[in-house]
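Model: You mentioned two targets. I'll fold them one after the other.
Researcher: Yes, keep them separate.
Model: Target one:
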Amino acid sequence: MSENSKILEVKNLRVSYHTYAGEVKSVRGVSFELETGKALAIVGESGCGKSVTAKSIMGLIKGPQGEIKEGSEILYNGENILKYDKKRWQAYKGGECAIIFQDALASLNPTMRVGKQIMENLMVHKHMSKKEAAAEAVEMLRMVGIPEPEKRVRQYPHEFSGGMRQRVMIAIAFACDPKLLICDEPTTALDVTIQGQILDIIKDLQKKHNTSVIMITHDLGVVANIAQDIAVMYSGMIVEKGKCSDIFYTPRHPYTWALIQSVPRLDLENKQELASIPGTPPDLLNPPVGCPFCTRCKYCMQICKEEMPETTDFGDGHVAACWLHHPMAPKVEMPNLKGGQR
């Protein structure tokens, strides 16, 4: 990968939240990169640090509670965004980098017409006149498949269904033609047919605008047809990353195996149980010294509890952090990854 093809590089990102109970280490040394025009999916269960990583890239970690630790770097086109001044932040947020949150109703202003919310972005970042922005807002709603956009542009968020509100969020995000788009679980709480439509819209707009996308989700089914690369996150760390085909067909980490097995399948037999991952993720107030997955992993060895595993490189950007790949570890065959338990 050439230097100029990378739009984003995250290096050793560490984020903590200071609470009454102590320091919660939400993100612990996350590193990844994203190529221009490509899509990266960050997957993992709730509380693993996916959304905190997204907020860090958007510059939404606010003190005194939230803190991005010294030594963390987020390079956008080779420039560390953590060193931006106020003026540069304004151009970056919403203009060059946009985010679609999972709860559109909470993200949209309930007291402001939908058209005006799209216009705001256009007037600030593209310096359009009010008339130009109003016409563009109608076009943006048409582009994301909202019927009668001339009428809908004058309505308030509560007059839209959940799926339509999410389309409005996509319209706001794409209004300024961002170079980097972060989708933080954009299909949560939507039914399956609407989920598919929303993902298709994001995918089409990504191709049309050559936008780089970070898709954050806990659902591996969402990832398959949108991302080229996948990073699997657990307990504030990336435990495995690689190309989409690597993660789905030759996963190397027991947590990735468990995630794939827990995806419901259409070919399950009658009354066959869905697979689940036993136990709970570790407490990030007191993170484990060894592998964070060791308490839930059936392949756990003594060293897993005592030391963090080194990252093993399997070539072509596919890496995993697991002691099973150490030369002295017992040989373990990858389990049958079909969902459901016999």
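Model: Target two:
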Amino acid sequence: MMLYVEPDFYGEFQCIADKCAHSCCLGWEIDIDRETAELYEGLPGALGEELRQKMCREPEPHFCLTEEERCPFLNKKGLCRLILGFGEDVLCDICREHPRFYNDFPERQEAGLGLCCEEAARLLLSGDGPLELVCDRDETGEEEEPALIALRGRMFEILRDFSLPMEERICRCCRGMDMEPIPFDAAFWRDFFLGLERMDEDWTAALLTVRTGELPLPGDAKHTRLLQYMLYRHFASAEDAAQAGLILQFCVLSLRLLWAMEQSGGELRELVRLWSAEIEYSDENIGKIVERIKSLHFPKEQI
């Protein structure tokens, strides 16, 4: 028996292709899984021959990006020439699945969409209520819910209570784990994030706008859904309750930083896209942030 879980907007997602202002076919080295690489060796015609010429085979198969760091099969209109020539069945795993992600638990799989995709970010923030999870079973029956999933579920219930200010909801989530929210010093965290690996100049520019984080977090649907979604994605990496507490603090810190950028005139959807690409997709950056939180706010004997 397997339980399949997805966020309420997951089924609405469709790649917007040439309408996307930040194509995932730009600036990323796209790996090709071995099975698809073998398929590419036998594709016919001029396009098949071009594909073999523009496929690097070492150390692992991948597309050879152009000098402008574009996938060589992204045309001037922002469309994939491989899909146009052969259909979607020839896509490699990454091209077929991105921006989808999957977190696996015993008898449970949770799917989602990475917020580095502008359409995924739009769908998440367009919801008019708290985030809901949609579940489906391949067989009837019930199983015991993993402890960390149950804990996250209780946080979701707290965050759904719009009668409470967001700050109070966050306090209740933290107190449920015997902790308090970490203080937010905007200048300190701005400088810390500036010291992490950065790829996009727009992210650097957004960080440099941060001056204050004194205003309370807004408690509207889009900020609530964003915090819930951060927890939905990142709780999967926690091995125990102590680490789950660090993940909670990381998510709250991320929300506060994005809110500080908003106060300086940033647009939330674009800020979320940048944050996801720069932070959420970098295990190294997340690791450094979590370690910093740990060193600043948790006594060693509690870790």
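Researcher: Noted. Anything on target two?
Model: Confidence is low (pLDDT under 50) at residues 299-303.
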